Structure to design on (164 residues):
């Protein structure tokens, strides 16, 4: 994939900024919280050493696909995009709020701004899988116009066409 020039994107009072080495501890602490882990396919606690290895790989190989989301200058969560190797216009997104004392609908805002971010990066499709038990995330996807195209025992699979 070619280099993406976008380092940050402002959407109203929010901004997505590409992660840097300075974010390593924040992301570790956020991602390891029970309520975040429990909504991921791999919900086991992450040892710091593994996190360091993963983080350094992300920073080196794919730094432009991991963003910290700030609202009014406060870092509150993460949005990331994994490019589909067979269709480089399609990304699978992942997101979470790392902070807890946030106003209702912050997750919805993160995702609707995330759609603007994906469009700004010229992606045409966002795909996603959501654990059945993740009622909030299911609602977010359905409220934002994602189409359910499959389910299995653990997940619902969604996609959204950004060209329409
Ligand atoms: C998923 C997540 C981003 C949602 O953020 P949030 O700010 O809590 O969610 P919102 O306030 O935007 O609520 C989303 C919807 O869920 C509903 N909701 C909120 N709390 C709920 C509850 N306890 N039970 C049922 N629905 C609930 C809201 O009413 C809203 O639906 P509506 O707009 O139709 O009324 C956040 O909880 C999170 O980061 N979770 C852990 C990681 C994760 O699940 N990531 C996504 C993986 S697919």
């Amino acid at each position: 994939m070619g280099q993406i020039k976008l380092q940050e994107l402002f959407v109203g009072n929010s901004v997505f900024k590409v992660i840097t080495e300075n974010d390593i501890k924040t992301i570790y602490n956020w991602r390891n919280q029970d309520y975040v882990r429990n909504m991921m396919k791999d919900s086991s606690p992450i040892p710091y050493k593994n996190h360091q290895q993963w983080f350094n790989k992300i920073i080196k190989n794919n730094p432009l696909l991991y963003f910290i989301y700030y609202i009014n200058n406060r870092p509150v969560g993460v949005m990331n995009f994994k490019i589909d190797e067979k269709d480089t216009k399609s990304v699978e997104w992942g997101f979470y709020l790392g902070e807890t004392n946030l106003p209702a609908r912050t997750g919805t805002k993160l995702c609707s701004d995330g759609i603007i971010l994906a469009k700004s990066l010229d992606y045409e499709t966002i795909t996603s899988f959501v654990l059945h038990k993740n009622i909030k995330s299911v609602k977010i996807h359905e409220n934002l116009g994602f189409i359910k195209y499959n389910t299995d025992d653990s997940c619902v699979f969604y996609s959204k066409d950004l060209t329409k």
